[in-house]
Amino acid sequence: MRFCIVGAGFSGAVLARRLAEAGHQSVVLDERRHVAGNCHTERDAATGIMLHRYGPHIFHTADREVWDYVNRFGRMMPYVNRVKALSGGAVYSLPVNLHTINQFFGTTMNPAEARAFVAAQARRDITEPANFEEQALSMVGDRIYRAFFRGYTRKQWGLDPTELPASILKRLPLRFNYDDNYFNHPFQGMPADGYTAIVAGILDHPGIDVRLGCRFEEAGGDFAHVFYTGPLDRYFGYQLGRLGYRTLDFEEVRAEGDLLGTAVLNYCDEDVPFTRISEHKYFAPWEADRFTGTVCFREYSRLGGAEDIPYYPIRLVGEKSMLSDYVALARRTQGISFLGRLGTYRYLDMDVTIREAMDAATATLERLAEGAAPPAFFLDPLG
């Protein structure tokens, strides 16, 4: 059978490859001039540094099958994400760990002492946090919250933390040891040749026809089924309204030598307009010493407009209501399935994106073998 897959990021590429290996043909469309979507990387012409053009992407997973899959198409190099944070004129390690706590309070506590100390700082009267701020106060108290979370969150989301769900903060770790590895997954790394090379390798199959610079709305063609990884609301012409996203603006900074001395430095103070700076040669520590120059990007977050690249789905009350209406509309539409970050309006890490695409391909092949069409969604976007 011949399918149309809209989007040449990880979702579309993994799905196309699985279908191709099962004997099916796919046309993969992407309106950008490159594959890999927001994971796109490329060598900087002036310095040779591998740049993450749409912001830093660090691969981490607990899924061995996904880890083996990406290593099939590219060589993953060891990389540990160690984030630094500037707050009140001092630099700390994130996530908040024993070193952060001792440095911030000027103490030398051991793990048990620090755990008891933070527990004493926490707001005990908040038993069921109703929002981000209450969740933070119930975990770490006012001082740590204001130093590391409040200002950064207001800049990142453009909202007061009392307007954000408590679930956002539940994902952030708090450690009572000196572990400053930002992630807690057994498999972590960075591709030696960048993410774009991996996605290009996945798409390199005679059963896959990749067409770049091609909008789905203008493509035409006769297909057995369409798999759409673009924005859900865009497919329906925004007839029910636009789902909200935060977008990012990047300000490039070039210099000789180093500027940060690390890959990522968060700026927690609200009076600093950007959220973080990333120094991209440090995303490839195995080669960083060979570059005499450096390329950094200041990152600014704002509400996305009609022409902006969508990064983070907002998913507050208004968006969830609109999403529910779009999901109902999609389920009434024949011949199309929605998947991926934009197709399901969910924030997804790369490993989850790959896993869901692998599972979608398996489900599709099973449905086809039964003579049935693939579903509108392989996972419930409202779940």
Automatic annotation (TrEMBL):
It holds the Pfam family NAD_binding_8. One of its GO terms (molecular function) is flavin adenine dinucleotide binding. Residues 147-347 form the UDP-galactopyranose mutase C-terminal domain. It comes from the Bacteria. GO terms for cellular component: cytosol. InterPro entries: UDP-GalPyranose_mutase_C. SUPFAM superfamilies: FAD-linked reductases, C-terminal domain (SSF54373), Nucleotide-binding domain (SSF51971). This is UDP-galactopyranose mutase.
